[in-house]
Amino acid sequence: MEENISKEIILTQEGYDKLEEELELLKTTRRKEVAERLKVAISFGDLSENAEYDEAKKEQAALEERIMKLEHMTRVAVIIDEDSVDLDVVTIGSVVKIFDYDFDEEVEYTIVGSAEADPYSFKISNESPVGKALLGRQKGEDVEVTVPDGIIKLKILDITR
Fold first, then answer.
1. Local confidence band at 83 (pLDDT 50, 70, 90 cut-offs)
2. Is the pLDDT of residue 3 over 70?
3. Fewest C-beta in 10 Å: which of 20, 39, 59, 159?
4. pLDDT in tens, 96-117
């Protein structure tokens, strides 16, 4: 068995709701669409040389794999109570305003579980180098983070939720 099969997945309520929405869409709308594509492809006849059929079967397999993954994620999900996020230290669910000395700028990140991470939306994983380095730290602390490009220096300006 794979190691992460039983690993809990930490999510905010928003992240959990997004997984549930995607799962519902895939199980209803997308399954019907793929089944219809298969039906049409089968109607073309000889399946041994039917590219449409092969493509629809691949899409169906990928769809079912994603559904299984989402079902697993929602089953093992641990939803963090954002109202109980400790504002004294950085935890999962914290919104952390930091000053990046290297770029001479302030940035605000939300620390989330890895399944919910989206750097483009400033949601960073608790398992990422920056997320890991910020966890457990307090407002006013300087933090050095080892990243692929070297070491970056950050200062925690504020912790909110």
1. confident
2. no
3. 39
4. 999 999 899 999 999 998 889 9
Q: What are the C-alpha distances in Å from 64 to residues 17, 60, 78, 133?
A: 20, 6, 23, 37
d(CA 25, CA 30): 6
CATH code at 9-79? 1.10.287.180
**Do 157 and 99 touch, CB atoms closer than 8 A?**
yes
d(CA 13, CA 107): 23
Delimit the CATH 3.10.50.30 region(s) of the chain.
89-160
Write out the CATH class of domain 89-160: alpha beta
Q: Give CA torsion, residues 112, 133, 99, 119, to 10 deg.
A: -40
- CA separation, residue 25 to residues 7, 14, 66, 121 (Å): 25, 17, 12, 23
